[in-house]
Every structure is written in structure tokens, then in C-alpha cells.
Amino acid sequence: MTPTMLIRGLFCFLVCAPGCVGSRPVPRPAPVPEPDPPPTVPPTTTACGRLKLFDSDGDGISNSVEDTNAARRYADLQTGRCDPDPTRPTGTPHSGQLSGALNLPDDGDGYVHFLGSDSADQDDWGSLQTLTCIEQVGRQLRENNLLLNVGDISLRGGGHFPPHASHQNGLDIDLRYIRKDRRSVPLDLRIEPQAYDADATKLVMDAFVKLCPVHIIFVDTDRIQFPIEDTPIFHANGHSNHAHIRLEAPQL
């Protein structure tokens, strides 16, 4: 081996250059890829409460109720803000008041408010508990392709509401019985018994009992055609054309 070859071999050994005679290249480690960042998960709760599609700020007041009452300047509510319940039902259904009343939106998920002989936004004022109850039942009934027809609740501020003896503190709800043709028009069980859907009406009653703090339900038990044992359903004269839901007073 010549001095030149010796020097070249020593150089290759020291620097480990690939391709040199008598040396082995040192493999470089493959680069480790950066891990993907975790997906961004939107929050499901806030300081107000649990977020829902129909209650985007989680304060327990639906977007529909907030938007309707804010747009008409009935209440200082705002979607995206934690609003407290402004309603205060006091007294009894037969001698009561309703401060901070909220107006029921006329069209909602699974329900519609009908005017009857009253003018717009006259007869559909209630406590937050009452409006939330109607919305909850409506959403469940929509899954069964049913539409809840809501009538009188209370006047704004509550108090005497002719021709009713009750409906004074925002806890009473009048409903039409469900028709077989599903039209949102009046139904009197004495006059059109063949148009009445007893099974669908029972679904409505069951939904209220399941989802709401029901105190009592008044109907025409002679004509509703389903059993009422072990339920809060009772007979009341003058209820052949509507059912009457009364809720328990909320804890304030």
C-alpha cells in the first residue's frame, strides 16, 4: 500500500465518508413526522349550562324565545348571553299574576299557536317553565309527525282572563285534540267524533306527563277514548273542544 492510499484510507475512516474504500457509511435516522394536532372540539357546556342546538348559550331559554321576545322588545334577552329567568308566576291559577311574562313564539318545532278570537300576542304569555314545556313536547311530537296546537295560556301580566276562570298566572295551557286529517283547525268531540285521533291525542298527554311538571289535565273523559287510571287526567265540563294542561308552580 502506497503512502497516498494509506493517507486516503485513514481520512475515510475518520470522516466515514460513503464510497471510501474500507469504510462503512453511517445511516442517518429517518425524520420523525410531527403529530397532527388534536381536532378542535367545541365546548358542550358554559357557565350558564349545557349547550344545545335550540339553546346555543345554555341558559335554559331557547333561541326562539330569546329572539322573539327581544325582537318585539318584550324582554331584555339575548342569544349568546347567560340570561336569568325573568318570569315570576304568583298566586293561583284562579287568582294570580305573572310578572316578567314571556311571549310564546307563534311557530316552533312541533307546535303552532292559534289565535282563536284573540288578537296577536294577547293570549300566549307564560312562565319560562310553561314555554319550555311546550317546546319540549313539540320536539318529541315532531318525531311522530304530530303538530301540537296551542291556544290560550295567560294575558301579559296575568290576572283575570275572560272567559276563563283560571289561566291567571302563566301555568295553564289549552290544546286542541289531534285530528285524523292532521289539520290545524278546531275539533269538537261532540260534533266531529269521527275526525278525532284518540291514539295521537294520548301521545300528546303522555308527552306532557313525561316531560313537564304536570299538576292536572282537564279533558272530556266521556269522549277521549283512552284510559286515564293512574294519570293526572280528570273530567271537566266544557272541554269537548280542547284539553287543559296545568303545571305545578315553579320553585322560585
Summarize the structure.
This protein is α+β, with helices and mostly antiparallel strands and 252 residues long. It has two domains: 46-84, no CATH class; 87-247, Muramoyl-pentapeptide Carboxypeptidase, domain 2 (2-Layer Sandwich).
Overview of this structure, please?
The protein has 252 residues and is α+β, with helices and mostly antiparallel strands. It has two domains: 46-84, no CATH class; 87-247, Muramoyl-pentapeptide Carboxypeptidase, domain 2 (2-Layer Sandwich). The chain has four helices and eleven strands. The strands form four sheets. A four-stranded mixed β-sheet has the order 8-11-9-10, with helices on one face. A three-stranded mixed β-sheet has the order 4-5-7. A hairpin with a 2-residue loop joins strand 1 (88-92) and strand 2 (95-99). Helix 3 (128-142) crosses helix 4. It is elongated, with a radius of gyration of 34 Å. The mean pLDDT is 89.
Strand proportion: 15-25%
SSE order, one letter for each helix or strand: HHEEEEEEHEEHEEE
On the 0 to 100 scale, the average pLDDT is 89
Strand order of the largest sheet: 8-11-9-10
Low-confidence blocks of residues: none
Number of helices: 4
The biggest beta sheet reads: 4 strands, mixed
Shape: elongated
N→C terminal distance: 103 Å
What is the CA-based Rg, rounded? 34 Å
Provide the CATH topology of the largest domain: Muramoyl-pentapeptide Carboxypeptidase, domain 2
SS content category: alpha+beta
Question: In CATH's first tier, which class of the largest domain applies?
Answer: Alpha Beta
Residues in helices, as a percent range: 10-25%
The number of domains: 2
Which architecture of the largest domain would the CATH scheme give at its second level?
Answer: 2-Layer Sandwich
Question: Using DSSP, what is the number of strands?
Answer: 11
